[in-house]
Amino acid sequence: MALNAKIPEGLLKDKWQNYLNKTNIVNPANRKKLDIIVVGAGLSGGGAAASLAELGYNVKVFFFQDSGRRSHSVAAQGGVNAAKNYKNDGDNVYRMFYDTIKGGDYRSREANVYRMAQVSVDLIDHMTAQGVPFGREYGGYLSNRSFGGVLVSRTFYARGQTGQQLLLATYQAMMKEIKRGTLTQYSRHEIQDIVVVDGKARGVIVRNLVTGEIERHSAHAVVLGTGGFGKIFYLSTLAMNSNGSATWRAHKKGAFFANPSWTQIHPTALPQAGEHQSKLTLMSESLRNDGRIWVPKKKDDPRPPGEIPAEDRDYYLERRYPAFGNLVPRDVASRAAKERMDAGYGVGPLKNAVYLDFKTAIEKLGVDTIRERYGNLFTMYKKITGIDAYKEPMKISPAAHFSMGGLWVDYELQTTIPGLYAVGEANFADHGANRLGANSLLQASVDGNFILPNTISNYLSNEIRTGKIPTDTPEFDEAEKAVKEQLQKILSIKGTMPVDQIHRRLGKIMFKEVAMSRNEKGLKWAIEEIRKLRKEFWTNVAVPGDDKGMNSELEKAGRLADYLEISELMAVDALDRKESCGAHFREEYQTEDGEAVRDDKNYMYSAAWEWLGGEKWKLHKEQLEFKEIEVKTRSYK
Amino acid sequence: MNLTLKIWRQEGPEAKGKMVTYKVSDISKDMSFLEMLDVLNEDLATKGERTVEFDHDCREGICGQCSLVINGQAHGHESHYTTCQTHMRSYKDGDVIFIEPFRAKSFPVIRDLKVDRSSMDKIIQAGGYISSFTGMAPEANSIPIHHEVAESAFDSAACIGCGACVATCKNSSAALFLSAKISHLAKLPQGKVERMERVVWMVNAHDDEGFGSCTNTGACAMVCPQEVDLLDITRMNYEYNRALATVRS
């Protein structure tokens, strides 16, 4: 099967309009005959569910949380990007496109990125109209801040809770549609499998997490807005229940998985404090607007940070990258922190952190300004660590964060299974090998609200004569049977190793060899270890209770079973790519001063993997073409 | 630290629940409260016993999924914390800790410490939104909003919908949750168009879902993780009476 990205004709700036001019749409009277299943109620899934319901389709939305308002988009802090150029600082759609392509180290699809920058402008209008209380200047107009990897201020924000505010607006739009009767929500339901009939996605098998019942639901199209799989590292910035199961089970039903190894390691999370830690809380990248990152120049300097004078501090980002300083992209900042810590300059009891210091900014701007900009982050920091960051620097450390990889999708956001779409972090589309800060909320929201509703109609226009999809067919029987068998199998093991313990061990393997820095030997070792651990899971996992009602251990075990397979593909993908690009840093391919060396001649492609079963995959390459941007070595010096 | 836990166990909504005693050992000061429960559950799983069901997700105080009444207080003893932000450094060796679900008529227990808070979704469905469809929006800067108004709207909008206000209130009223959404939208120009229908529909939905009446004791504001202001309840009453008076005249 050859990959066809279906990129429209014309210049970059015209492609989306050309697409909209020619795409098929569905008569409003026919929309209510068409069923759509959306999985996930975050910014991408929830936005898709609300917008599709507004158009008049019959929409069902499934999510495992108790309310759509809890989806993990809620935790995004710093902001959302848009090329409004309210600051008169030279921003425009092309510059945003340029920054995103460059930030992604020239490994994303030109047409998709340009479209994201184009519709970013509409998104701010949309979210403002929904009542998002964005930060305002004293004249009443919208305020902006800067994020890493750019030289303009294009980030809109609602204090340090931007994700929460965008998600609540999206959730409220869903609630509005529930009241109108066009949308039905299924909370505490987790997807178990995608049902494919005659090559098309026709439904899902879900588990009601309250009653334990397995249910069948059919539709003319299925949309996955299920987020990323960074929780594979166990310690991550993700929510405890975030998982990769929906996309992985779709992968095993035929959807190609693209660039799985590209995981963003966020530079500013709280460091690990002990073995039982379950979560690494993120401190927003926006803090790097005013915070300066440093470590002592002297190893094991015993003085408290406040007593170390400027001449004994190494502001290593400002030293190595004078042009961008503390605002280099995340992959660069994380690697630079790792370099200092590996060299023995880390701070804190476990030497696993660096300082993020606001002293200069507080002196210059006053404590009130800093409180208004980041107050909730300082409060959150204090609640978790007991430390007042207005008085002493924060201690921060890199942590697994965002999955740039995901299901391969074409320009229409359709996977390689017709009728199956992936939106937001669940797809691979827009961020290349490294995502820029504040582009995640953007991509999730525009995929769901503005792009998918306009592309899914092209597919659904051929479904108006199909009629209701029956669920009493062999395909549904088979899918349900397989789901039930897997649950029974997990319950029958009755071993001695709790799910979290196995997950922690997987996380350690992954963070050691498949994270910030990779090499051939380490990756091969990781594959062996993952296989051993998978075997141990299937012979010795301890899952008590039954499948008749609520059973959190059973839910976690199902997700871990998938992680134990995704992890192998991540290592396989990292092994295949013999170059360094963005978050993918192969130690064999670096300059003398430790910067990444890309190989555009051989690796200018997105790697889309096809599942062949039994630890085997086939690689399909989507060659990337850059027609309206010059491909250069990425430099922030 | 070694601790004794007294935890509410209940098989299902109709079953009779009871407090069960557990011991946990080697709890370190830097663990979070929920990580301490993880230790207990790993121990139970190893022994093949059904683990304690409790709600949690983001573990950074923003999703609102965690709950628990700890030693009689919603989200534990620290004011304005969520359970997931509570850490073990404030406990000492030998402590006995009582852990119960959020209790309210409108929050039936699902199993152990997990409760059903869909009644809060119903309140929002009644009108807690702006009826702007995707594609309708005007240019964002065409509606200037005073800096302080936007900040004040944010203060109300920050509610995480955890339900601690309900669990704390002696009447099981959701007035703080309800008034936060009404205030958020009533403060902004975009939300003013529907303010009258919204407040009436939402207040009615609140009562229909079995939440109690507010008697202004203010206990809710003492526990609220986002420090939603008690004045929002005053604002809600103003909005409600204003709406009724306007409709009647």
Give structural notes.
The complex is a heterodimer of chains A (637) and B (249). Chain A is of the alpha/beta class and 637 residues long. Among the domains of chain A are: 266-401, Alpha-Beta Complex (Flavocytochrome C3, Chain A, domain 1); 474-599, Up-down Bundle (Methane Monooxygenase Hydroxylase, Chain G, domain 1). In chain A, 37% of the residues lie in helices and 15% in strands. Chain A contains 17 helices and 21 strands. Chain A is globular. Chain B folds into 2 domains: 3-111, Beta-grasp domain (Ubiquitin-like (UB roll)), CATH 3.10.20.30; 118-248, Fumarate Reductase Iron-sulfur Protein, Chain B, domain 2 (Orthogonal Bundle). Chain B is of the alpha+beta class and 249 residues long. In chain B, a hairpin with a 2-residue loop joins strand 6 and strand 7.
What's the short version?
Chain A has helices at residues 12-22, 28-31, 43-55, 93-103, 110-129, 162-180, 245-252, 316-320, 330-342, 359-365, 367-385, 440-460, 474-493, 499-513, 520-540, 552-576, 600-603, and strands spanning 35-39, 58-62, 80-81, 155-156, 183-186, 189-197, 200-208, 214-218, 221-224, 257-258, 263-269, 292-296, 313-314, 354-357, 394-403, 406-407, 420-422, 497-498, 541-542, 605-611, 617-623. Chain A has 637 residues and is an alpha/beta fold.
